[in-house]
Write a structure and sequence with these properties.
Strand order of the largest sheet: 3-2-1-4-5
Largest sheet: 5 strands, parallel
Number of strands: 5
CATH superfamily of the largest domain: HAD superfamily/HAD-like
Shape: globular
Radius of gyration: 17 Å
Strand content: 5-15%
Number of helices: 11
CATH architecture of the largest domain: 3-Layer(aba) Sandwich
Distance between the termini: 23 Å
CATH topology of the largest domain: Rossmann fold
CATH class of the largest domain: Alpha Beta
Number of domains: 2
């Protein structure tokens, strides 16, 4: 029997379908070259800075839309929603989270924010109802991989690092969690992730899938 009694999940790319395909589809719709968003927002120095500021709540989504729109050469109108609006719920992990809670495991969310307005990534997922703790980075003025944000999540869960498993689609964030003592799972394939979580938590999370 596992002594782990907590599960902490990233949101985008874990409880949703993968991010990259919807970004590539946005680029195609807008007539942008493939990889334009990655280059402008995650490799360019200014793009990295403004996206980090957005995740920490230092700039608003509307401000990010304006800056990112100029960098990409596209309209800023609801830009974040246009990029990521194609994301859909990932049933395998949503169902696994529900199965974990039924088994008495606390399940929390730890997500780097993309702003909450005018477009809300979390709308319709009932996070406050379906999970035991919800930590959105902008509310804490920090972002993953800041260790203090992981500590804030553990406090909200009322569990120690050694009691928890953390799942993220970004490997660097998984490694940051592991350094603090959490067990880490890099989500690349939902079915494989559920199997790994079943082993780590000592609970079959595959029932009904």
């Amino acid at each position: 029997m596992s002594n782990r009694t907590g599960l902490i999940l990233d949101f985008g790319g874990v409880l949703t379908t993968p991010l990259l395909p919807v970004v590539l589809a946005f680029e195609q719709r807008e007539g942008l070259p493939q990889g334009a968003c990655i280059s402008a927002l995650y490799q360019d120095e200014e793009g990295v800075r403004v996206t980090s500021d957005l995740e920490r709540g230092a700039v608003s989504q509307s401000e990010w839309n304006e800056i990112a729109g100029k960098k990409l050469g596209v309209s800023p109108d609801n830009l974040m929603g246009r990029i990521f609006g194609g994301l859909r719920p990932e049933p395998l992990l949503i169902n696994a989270a529900a199965a974990a809670r039924r088994a008495g495991i606390k399940v929390g969310i730890l997500s780097n924010s993309v702003g909450l307005s005018p477009w809300d990534l979390y709308d319709g997922y009932e996070l406050e109802t379906l999970y035991d703790a919800v930590v959105i980075s902008e509310h804490y003025k920090m972002r993953k991989p800041d260790s203090a944000l992981f500590e804030a999540t553990l406090k909200a869960m009322d569990l120690s690092a050694e009691q928890c498993v953390f799942v993220d689609d970004t490997e660097a964030y998984v490694k940051a969690a592991e350094k603090l003592g959490l067990a880490g799972v890099h989500n690349r394939d939902p079915k494989q992730t559920v199997a790994e979580l079943s082993d780590l938590l000592g609970v079959d999370l595959t029932s009904g899938q």
